[in-house]
Design a protein that fits this description.
CATH superfamily of one domain: Winged helix-like DNA-binding domain superfamily/Winged helix DNA-binding domain
Number of strands: 2
Shape: elongated
CATH topology of one domain: Arc Repressor Mutant, subunit A
Distance between the termini: 13 Å
Radius of gyration: 17 Å
Largest sheet: 2 strands, antiparallel
CATH architecture of one domain: Orthogonal Bundle
Strand content: 5-15%
CATH class of one domain: Mainly Alpha
Structural class: mainly alpha
């Protein structure tokens, strides 16, 4: 199972915003430059996070993107679920009607347990945790790094 580029980029952008939390807004072009992401694509990636209320924008010359909630109040699950939708490894876990074998299939139970474990793990990690880890990584190397999941 692999996460999409959209989920990885959303997480990296949110870490950038968490690192700047409580200071100045970050312009889209600055986030894109720091993370080596196309501005046009990054704007699309950030839209669902904005719609969900995790981030907001300020207009004007000193405007940009800001976190709308504290980094401690956003989990990795929140970010990934917002941009990906369901994290179920197979469709029948979320929608029983798509499979005629649902009552006879031992694998559905396994996939459901796997989804629960992934959800549990993603919910343990906050944006504050990731920002702190990013600061530590930058300190070890002495420069800003791209954060990949």
């Amino acid at each position: 199972m692999q996460l999409s580029t959209k989920a990885r980029y959303a997480t990296r952008a949110m870490i950038e915003l968490a690192l700047e939390f409580g200071t100045n807004p970050l312009q889209l072009k600055e986030i894109a430059r720091r993370q080596d992401i196309s501005e046009k694509y990054l704007e699309q990636v950030l839209l669902p996070l904005r719609t969900r209320g995790f981030i907001y924008t300020l207009k004007g010359s000193k405007g940009g993107y800001c976190l709308a909630v504290t980094p401690q109040d956003v989990t990795l699950y929140d970010i990934i679920q917002t941009v990906e939708g369901s994290i179920a490894p197979v469709h029948c876990v979320e929608n029983k009607e798509i499979c005629a074998r649902i009552d006879k299939c031992a694998m559905r139970n396994y996939w459901s347990r796997l989804k629960d474990k992934i959800t549990e793990e993603l919910q343990k990690t906050t944006l504050a945790d990731l920002a702190q880890e990013q600061k530590e990584k930058e300190g070890e190397v002495g420069e800003k790094l791209d954060y990949q999941i």
